[in-house]
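Lab intake sheet, docking and co-folding queue.

SAMPLE TYPE: protein with bound small molecule
LIGAND NAME: zinc ion
LIGAND FORMAT: SMILES
REQUESTED OUTPUT: full 3D complex as structure tokens
PRIORITY: normal
SUBMITTED BY: R.K., bench team

The fields below were copied directly from the construct record.
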Amino acid sequence: MNEEKRVIEELRETVCRLHAELVRYGLVAWTAGNISGRVPGADLFVIKPSGVSYDDLTPESIVVCDLDGDLVEGSLAPSSDTAAHAYVYRHMPEVNGVAHTHSTYASAWAARGEPIPCVLTAMADEFGGGIPVGPFALIGGDDIGRGIVETLTGHRSRAVLMRNHGVFTIGESPKAAVKAAVMCEDVARTVHVARQLGVPAPIAPGDVDSLYDRYQNVYGQRSHR
Ligand SMILES: [Zn+2]
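RESULT FIELD (auto-filled):
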């Protein structure tokens, strides 16, 4: 087996396994959520097939697409969000993983078109500030992808709340994108609950910077990120 084939096989396994995390963390209903991963060193990515339930996903069912979102390998049709993932990979070379969910609390903020303010240290750690809202965009063409890229370019947040829709997250790996999706829902829920009881207090910008810097550069086991 040549090297690229082996890399794609591993990535299909990883991306298949990560979809179980969407279920485990309660981020998806039915089949409404998907994850992709860029094939290192190639203009390709792997993504969930369209309309396949998470229980039925296998590494072989994960499809391979080129950066135009066209199917390259696999017997099933790619996710209906493939164009959005492809747009992100074309325009953000540092991104190697993309996740998309309609997780409840984050999507509730998206439904109001309201960014989640940075009122928790966990938000400063993971997102370096608030979580922004992207434009309303219809599925099918490049509009969703463009909205993600325009909102997240130059922003510390790796998550965007696409207006009236749901969450897209990006990461240096598919796992990092999934982690951002999990954390986004977690803070969306906590800040929502906080607001039921009063006005959440913002964190001073200097403190947000310190928290973000520490978490991104010092915290944890660097080799296991
Ligand atoms: Zn969606």
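REVIEWER NOTE: Residues 174-197 form the longest helix (24 residues).
SIGN-OFF: pending second check by T.M.
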